[in-house]
Amino acid sequence: MIGKKIILPFAALFIMNSCDEPVYPDPTGEKGVLVMEGMELSVNEEPDAYVGSYVINIKSRGSGDVVESWMFDDIPAEVKLPVGKYIIEAYNEELQPAAWNAPYYYASSEIEVQKDADATIRSLNCVLSNVKIDVAYSDELKAAMGNDAVVDVSMSGVTLQYGYNEDRSGYFMCPEGACTLVATFTGTVNGMAWHDYQVLSDVKAGQARVLTFELTDNLTLSQENIHAKAGATSQMITVSATGAWEVSVSDDASTWISIDNKTESSFVVNITENESTQARTGTVVVKMGSLSRQISVSQEGREIFGAPRFESSTVDITGENDAADFGTGKQDAVVNIIAENGIASLKVTIDSEILSGLLPEVGLEESFDLATGQGVNGTDLTAALVSLGFPVAEGGTIDINGSPVEYKPVVNETNVQFDVTTFIPLLSLFGQGSHNFIVEVTDNADLTSSVTLHFVSH
To answer: Which strand ranges, in their side-by-side order, compose the sheet holding 31-35?
Structure first.
């Protein structure tokens, strides 16, 4: 990490007004004399400073209102004021929240004007009453950093940006007590993006501080924890380093965490989908010489829903269906298969004495899996299944009789229609019989459900 040096010099002087003082005395009341002739004004940090343009205010001790005001060169020999207590203050310019080369020198003194005795101001000594901040770099860091380097210094809600060659001092207001200063370094160091910061929580008005950034061996990651949900995801990690570094994955997590897109200042952590209900953790390690940083990776387990289920508004999935009730101009023979964990297999078995001998003529077998498009013997039945309107495998396009035909997917789908509307009316052509379509669905959570769709032809 870039090192830090702090220089602490001056202390500020503030005179606080009491809340129980009387307000400004009645100007029509009795008056006294405040003698100002011979008053001396000095600046503690600058003994040779020109003070002629300094502002001299006389303020009511009770209300804080300014009663009289002059430049120091223009103060009168004496001034008559209503009897009462006052604050005499001097300063070089108005205090700014933050500005370059803008020291704020301030002094104040309490005095009481009486009726029968002259009050006299002998001297005021102004001291630094805002905070002076300078930024410096060690010779080693200066040689390594690019000219894009900047330091943003913030205090009391305002910021000054110190550029690469900034030689001015910044001055910041610190209203009361201790203020917090944040200095953020941004730029390239040894050709790589670099970020560092200093936080000082005890800064007080009247202090002058030099913030020195130094170069030491450093290895910093943009984050050291990754928490992922069960789905696949990727996360870019930014690296700030003073030398060459390497990244690796712990052996126990190498099957589901991988690294790619490595550059001089970043890499990507890839996390595969978690097929288990159990959460898992792994570690990514970044090394540079003797320095090592770890990223803890955690991934949630997959939420398991209930077993697949079957729904239909036209087909009685628990009883007998008349084949003559389905077809064009009649009811659709559609069953919705709902598998919230995603479908792994969708096996169909046709149990029919009449159809068993006819299925080979249309390119089908008595049993097949729509998730693979294959029969029980491994025969590819995709073309025949698609021609009958079934969804198959991952979906796609197939050439049937010289024309491309698109078909919908089955694998990993959560809602699939098993539609035999065009198939059922054909059953009546072969005479009286009983026909069962046994549908068995297994999802990605290894949960299985089945239904027997029973049709009769007359």
So the answer is: 78-82, 31-35, 119-120
> Which ranges constitute the DSSP H helices of 93-223?
139-144
In the chain, the percentage of residues whose pLDDT exceeds 70 is 94
Please give the Cα distance from 103 to 92 (Å, whole number): 8
Q: How far is CA 205 from the centre of its chain?
A: 35
134 near 211, Cβ under 8 Å? yes
**pTM beyond cutoff 0.85:** no
141 and 171 in one domain? yes
What residues pair up with 344 in beta bridges, in sequence order? none
Domain count for the chain: 4
Q: In the Cβ-directed half-sphere of 419, how many Cα atoms lie within 13 Å?
A: 18
Per residue in 187-202, pLDDT tens? Answer: 888 777 788 889 998 9
Residues 124 and 224 in one domain: no
CA 22 → CA 19, 59, 68, 457, distances in Å? Answer: 9, 13, 18, 109
pLDDT at 24: 53
pLDDT band at residue 424, thresholds of 50, 70 and 90?
A: confident
- Give ∠ CA 19-22-26 in degrees, rounded to 5: 150
Instruction: Determine, yes or no, domain membership for 2.
Output: no
CA–CA separation, 155 vs 199, rounded Å? 10
Closest CA to 195 of 239, 229, 235, 159: 239
Name the DSSP letter for residue 204.
E
Token output for 92: 């070089």
Q: Give the phi and the psi of residue 387 in degrees, each rounded to 5.
A: -65, -25
Q: What is the CATH number of the domain that holds 412?
A: 2.60.40
**Measured distance CA(424)–CA(330) in Å, rounded:** 12
- Residues 105 and 130 sit within 8 Å (Cβ to Cβ): no
Residue 195's pLDDT is what?
80
Burial call 33-42: b when 16+ CB within 10 Å, e when fewer? bbebeebebb
DSSP 62-92: TT--EEEEEEGGG--SEEEEESEEEEEEEES
Name the CA radius of gyration of the chain, rounded: 43
The pLDDT of residue 28: 61
When the pLDDT of each residue in the chain is averaged and rounded to a whole number, the result is 89
223 & 161 share domain:
no
